[in-house]
Design a protein that fits this description.
Blueprint lengths: L13 E7 L5 E6 L4 E7 L9 E5 L10 E5 L10 E14 L2 E2 L2 E6 L18 H16 L3 E8 H20 L7
Parallel strand pairs: 5-8
Antiparallel strand pairs: 1-4, 1-6, 2-3, 4-5, 6-7, 6-8, 6-9
């Protein structure tokens, strides 16, 4: 299966390519060079991903990679599965001083999250879950990560919009050469 040319979708309903399933101690990452999902890191001590993790195609985040996304579901989603999602929030963070924001989203077809529009509507302490997750990533990967804050759907949509514009400029130029 080729993972190239996965369409973005739109800001209200976009695709996420899941790399790492919820509950996995193995961090997988898409390799553009190989056009495959490869093992990137193995966490130890029972540490695992609290939610499915992947990226939004045809976006470009502040770190120069596709915009990352956590996909909230009750069950794991296998690596390589494309999930149509909608944003409910964003974690703005710095990874080694570089912007590396994470969109928090839910599948558009997930009945458990059908009415959830914003982080404030979640029935669990998402802040503590993500804060603890990133604290352990810092320890196990010897990184410096700073969570700047958790923000609502509107801020997430702004970030997605900006990331799609950045991708288009990188891919097709800014149009300034057209006279």
């Amino acid at each position: 299966m080729s993972y190239k040319n996965i369409p973005f979708g739109g800001v209200e309903k976009f695709n996420v390519l899941v790399e790492t399933p919820k509950g996995s101690a193995h961090k997988y990452e898409y390799s553009e060079k190989l056009d495959a999902i490869v093992l990137d890191f193995i966490y130890t001590g029972g540490f695992c991903f609290p939610y499915n993790y992947g990226f939004i195609p045809e976006t470009l985040g502040g770190d120069g990679d596709n915009l990352d996304a956590f996909v909230l579901t009750a069950n794991p989603i296998l690596p390589g599965v494309i999930v149509p999602c909608r944003a409910i929030g964003i974690i703005e963070l710095l990874d080694r001083g570089e912007e590396d924001n994470k969109i928090i989203c839910v599948p558009v077809t997930d009945r458990d999250y059908k009415s959830c529009e914003n982080l404030s509507e979640l029935s669990f302490d998402y802040k503590t879950i993500f804060e603890n997750f990133f604290k352990e990533v810092v320890v196990q990967k010897n990184k410096i990560i700073e969570i700047k804050g958790f923000f609502d759907k509107a801020r997430a949509i702004e970030a997605i919009t900006e990331a799609t514009k950045s991708f288009l400029v990188l891919s097709f130029g800014d149009g300034s050469e057209i006279k």
